[in-house]
Write a structure and sequence with these properties.
It is a single chain. The protein contains three helices and six strands. The protein is α+β, with helices and mostly antiparallel strands. The protein has a six-stranded antiparallel β-sheet with strand order 1-2-3-4-6-5. The radius of gyration is 16 Å and the shape is globular. The relative contact order is 0.19.
Length: about 140
Amino acid sequence: MSTKAELFQAYLDEHELNMFNRQDIKDEVNTSIFRTAFGVDGKDIPAVVIVDDSAFCMIQVHMAGQVLNDGNKTRLLEMVNNMNAGLKPFKFIFDSQGNLIMVCCLLNADGQMDGDKVNAMLNTILDYLTKEHKKVLEAING
C-alpha cells in the first residue's frame, strides 16, 4: 500500500466520507482504487480515485458504457473534442471498449496526498454532472 493511499484513507476517515470502497492492488506502484458513485438524475454514475506512489492522483468517471462504434465514431470524437476545448479541470476520452470516461489528473508532491484538493475536484465534477450529464447522454444518442 502506498503512503498516499494511507493519507487519503485517513482524510476520508477524519471527514467521515464513507462513500468509498477501497481496493489495494499489489503492483509495482502500490495502486489503491477508491470506488464511489455520483447520484445524478436518479442514476448512479461510477467513479474511482486512483492513488499510487507516483506524483499523480487520477479521478475517472464512467459517463457512458460502450457507446463508441463505427457508425458514430466521427460524430462522437468531434463532440468530445469540442467538449474538451471548453473544459479546464477534466477531459473526456473513449477507452478501448468504447466507454466514455471523464478523466482528471491531480498533482501531489512526493509523500503527500491532498485530500482537500481531491474532495474539491469531486465536488466540481458533481456540479458538472448535475448540470451536464443529461445533455452529454442526449448528444451521444444523437
